[in-house]
């Protein structure tokens, strides 16, 4: 094999190798195999941000460091769009936000589970 195809230099040699390997290679696309699949459909569901998400969104957008540094860590605002996206997905994704939100929740509602803070923030 190496003597014949070890040093491919011409297009004819490459085509000959492809012809030999084609019956042994399995490359199929999903739409070629399963004909009954419906075309992919995207549904956009608009949901309003929670109060906590709105606070963080505004602080990130305005680069309000005094609000953002109340937690233990300061989020990296070099990529503002990525931080806004994280905020929209869930504010706990922002560095330092989880500790701040949970501690404020425990001060406001003593004796309640921290899982409720997670739910309220989402």
How far is the N terminus from the C terminus? Answer: 60 Å
Helix tally equals 8
Structural class, from secondary structure content?
mainly alpha
Q: From the alpha-carbon coordinates, what is the Rg to the nearest angstrom?
A: 27 Å
> Would you count the extended β strands for me?
0
Beta percentage is under 5%
Q: Could you tell me the mean pLDDT?
A: 79
| Basic shape | elongated
Main pleated-sheet profile: none
* Uncertain residue ranges: none
Helix and strand string, N-terminal first? Answer: HHHHHHHH
The helix content, as a percent range, equals 40-55%
Structure, explained:
With 122 residues, the protein is mainly alpha-helical. It starts with a helix and ends with a helix. It has 8 helices and no strands. The protein has helices at 2-5, 11-21, 30-33, 51-61, 65-68, 80-89, 97-108, 114-121. The model has no long low-confidence stretch (mean pLDDT 79). Helix 4 (51-61) packs antiparallel against helix 6 (80-89) and helix 7 (97-108) crosses helix 8 (114-121).
């Amino acid at each position: 094999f190496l003597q014949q195809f070890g040093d491919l230099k011409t297009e004819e040699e490459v085509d000959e190798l492809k012809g030999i390997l084609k019956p042994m290679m399995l490359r199929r696309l999903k739409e070629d195999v399963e004909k009954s699949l419906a075309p992919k459909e995207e549904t956009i569901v608009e949901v309003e941000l929670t109060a906590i998400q709105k606070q963080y969104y505004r602080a990130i957008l305005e680069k309000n460091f005094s609000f953002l540094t109340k937690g233990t860590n300061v989020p990296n605002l070099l990529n503002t769009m990525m931080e806004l996206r994280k905020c929209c997905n869930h504010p706990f994704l922002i560095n330092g936000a989880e500790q701040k939100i949970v501690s404020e929740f425990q001060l406001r509602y003593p004796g309640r589970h921290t899982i409720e803070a997670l739910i309220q923030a989402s």
